[in-house]
Design goal:
Elements (H helix, E strand, L loop, with lengths): L7 H22 L3 H15 L9 H21 L10 H7 L2 H16 L5 H10 L5 H11 L3 H35 L4 H31 L5 H22 L3 H14 L7 H24 L5 H30 L7 H8 L6 H18 L7 H34 L9 E5 L3 H12 L4 E5 L2 H9 L4 E3 L5 H5 L6 E6 L4 H15 L4 E4 L19 E3 L6 H9 L3 E6 L6 H8 L4 E7 L3 E4 L12 E7 L12 E5 L6 E5 L1
Parallel strand pairs: 1-2, 1-4, 2-3, 4-5, 5-6, 7-12
Antiparallel strand pairs: 7-10, 8-9, 8-10, 11-12
Helix pairs in contact: 1-2, 1-12, 2-12, 2-16, 3-10, 3-11, 3-12, 3-15, 5-6, 5-13, 6-8, 7-8, 7-16, 8-9, 8-11, 8-15, 9-10, 9-11, 10-11, 10-12, 13-14, 13-16, 15-16
């Protein structure tokens, strides 16, 4: 192995830089970030020995454990019961019946494939029931499935993490006690299970009540709220684990769920902070844990073909069987069940717990029971766990998105548009987009606007764009951007802020503010606003005036014979470019920012004043009359 002599500061900075670089490259290439994190981590381990990345094993695992606790708390904060309305029974069965099936089936497979003895097989099966937010949430963000199935996968992944970790800890106590004393100590284990659950539930309730009171009474200033909650979560996690081993995972997850489902205190700022922190923690944890692996021929020989067979059985057989029995009698369609059957990656909890259990086996048995088979299997136990983690993350990560699209549960790089407002300009623009094959959805509280939109065949929802109903209840499958086009600039800005997390800052847009002529008169500061529509900043009043004067939306296909300069020469200042359509698949929203010049093969969608619209020799024009007689769309092909 190559090794470099680096200072601790450079080592830590390298880990963080590699983690964020992997996240960025994955985003750029549209690949699951976890796959690249594992690859980067293994590559780092080839140049930087694992022992260089921590002062001691105890300190290393303490840091990993605290990070996992924070990630699970953040995951719990994302679990709103309204997401699984009507499917709560499926979640309950997945984390009970499905978990037991996964445990026992994995244990049987590991034993009969000759990988481990029966006790170690049972321990491995218990540990591999976990999944967790460190792997499920990045996958779901990458795939972007429809709301119901995405919520189910998220709930299962987050809830079964603490359950699986506690199960693994209890099975470990039985296995270790049998190796040391020769009996199973079943009564002691059941007692510990009860105490672990009691400790986790009690501390979760007390912790949630404490934070609720602190925030409700404004006892902590805004600038200290996020670090205060972070410190409290980590302290409570550590105290809970000190009282009962592995109860901390139950405590922080349940505390997050309780806080997520209360309606008295606003926690959006906390959630946003924890989500950013989660990205950093996941990036560093996967890099560090993967760097501890030595991938060479000796490792592969130690794993053997049986371990590869175990991975295939877990993914191809055990997971589908567990989902089948867990979803019997439910309202899920066959394609939703198929999606659930193909998502159960293992993550940080499995990696951290396997390393910790392997270390504890060595420390407990090395001196007094050196002949124990568990001691000989301890190192292989960790290797097999990491093999399952890497294989499951890679297989699911590379295949889940294509499968979801094939099942009709997701769209790659969703191009649909959510409109805040259903005024006449919004309706006309939505029709033009819909005719190009892009999904649209309009949201407005004005009954007249909504009625007009329905008459034109546009999907519309009567709601406020800033309501929780729109954020939590509406299925936005296929929607990838927001166009805020209400008459109120403050409402448009609030809509942009509400959907920035979902769509990203690059895909939230709003109309120009009529007052934004200087810094003194602008109603909302510029950094809070979305990107400005369209290539010439335009207000809603200006759009309405142009439509009233007879302006039409015209679609023009650019070619070598009729390029963008010809388009401008023909229409001049009359043309307000709204969108560009690339290859018939990608919708590009025009903004006032500097953009690439439209090229041949792209279609321009623009608003053209009627008195300046001239049919050119290069582009024929077809006018499509609106059924309501309200307006018309002029499509240049």
């Amino acid at each position: 192995m190559l090794a470099l002599e680096l200072t601790p500061a450079v080592e830590l900075a390298s880990v963080l830089a590699l983690g964020i670089a992997a996240q960025w490259v994955a985003w750029k290439l549209r690949l699951p970030a976890i796959v690249l994190l594992l690859v980067f981590g293994v590559a780092l381990g080839r140049f930087l020995p694992a022992e260089e990345l921590g002062a001691s094993q105890d300190l290393f695992f303490a840091m990993v454990s605290l990070a996992v606790g924070v990630i699970l708390f953040e995951g719990g904060l994302s679990l709103d019961f309204r997401e699984i309305h009507g499917t709560k029974g499926v979640v309950a069965r997945l984390v009970s019946i499905g978990l037991v099936i996964t445990w026992l089936s994995t244990a049987a497979a590991a034993y009969y494939l000759g990988i481990f003895s029966l006790p170690m097989s049972v321990l491995l099966g218990a540990l591999l029931t976990v999944s967790g937010p460190t792997v499920v949430l990045p996958l779901l963000r990458h795939v972007q499935p429809v709301r119901r199935i995405g919520s189910l996968a998220k709930w299962e992944g987050i809830v079964n993490d603490p359950i699986g970790a506690v199960l693994a800890a209890l099975v470990f106590e039985v296995v270790l006690h049998q190796a040391e004393q020769g009996d199973l100590a079943t009564g002691e284990v059941l007692t510990n299970l009860g105490l672990t659950i009691l400790c986790g539930v009690a501390l979760a309730g007390l912790g949630a009540w404490f934070l609720w009171e602190i925030l409700r009474r404004y006892l902590v200033p805004d600038y200290l709220q996020n670090p205060f909650i972070l410190a409290f979560v980590m302290l409570l996690f550590a105290v809970s684990n000190q009282l009962m081993h592995e109860s901390g995972l139950v405590t922080v997850t349940l505390m997050g769920v309780i806080l997520a489902n209360q309606r008295k205190v606003e926690l959006r700022h906390v959630v946003e902070f924890k989500e950013n922190l989660r990205v950093l923690l996941i990036s560093m944890l996967f890099i560090v844990l993967a760097s501890r692996l030595e991938v060479n021929m000796a490792t592969l020989e130690k794993l053997g073909w049986g371990s590869i067979g175990l991975v295939l059985v877990i993914i191809m057989v055990i997971r589908p069987v567990a989902v089948f029995f867990s979803t019997l009698g439910s309202s899920l369609s066959w394609n939703e069940r198929a999606f659930l059957a193909w998502i159960h990656p293992r993550g940080i909890v499995a990696a951290a717990v396997s390393s910790l259990l392997a270390l504890q086996i060595k420390l407990s048995l090395e001196e007094h029971h050196p002949e124990s088979t568990l001691l000989a299997e301890a190192e292989k136990f960790e290797l097999v766990t990491f093999l399952v983690i890497m294989a499951s993350v890679t297989i699911y990560g590379l295949t889940l998105a294509p499968l979801a699209r094939w099942l009709g549960l997701s769209g790659q790089n969703p191009q649909g548009v959510l409109f805040a407002g259903a005024s006449r300009p919004a309706r006309e623009i939505a029709i033009a987009i819909q005719q190009e094959g892009f999904p649209v959805l309009l949201v407005d509280t004005n009954p007249k606007n909504n009625s007009s939109a329905r008459m034109k065949g546009l999907p519309v929802t009567h709601a406020s764009i800033g309501s929780e109903f729109v954020q939590e209840e509406i299925d936005l499958g296929g929607i990838g951007r927001l166009l805020a086009m209400t008459p109120n600039d403050e409402v448009n800005t609030l809509a942009v802020q509400g959907f920035t997390e979902r769509f990203g800052r690059a895909e939230v847009y709003q109309l120009a503010s009529p007052e934004a002529r200087s810094e003194k008169t602008e109603t909302v500061t510029a950094y809070r606003r979305g990107r400005t529509l369209f290539d010439i900043p335009t207000t809603l009043a200006e759009l309405e005036a142009r439509f009233e004067a007879g302006a039409k939306i015209k679609k023009t296909m650019l070619s070598e014979d009729f390029d963008y300069d010809d388009f401008l020469a023909e229409h001049g200042n009359s043309a307000l470019v709204l969108f560009r359509v690339e290859d018939g698949k990608r919708l590009i929203v025009a903004t006032d920012e500097q953009e690439a010049v439209p090229k041949a093969g792209q279609k321009i969608i623009a608003l053209i004043d009627e008195d300046k619209s001239v049919i050119s020799r290069e582009a024929s024009t077809t006018t499509i009359s609106d059924k309501s007689g309200d307006s018309s769309i002029s499509a240049g092909l």
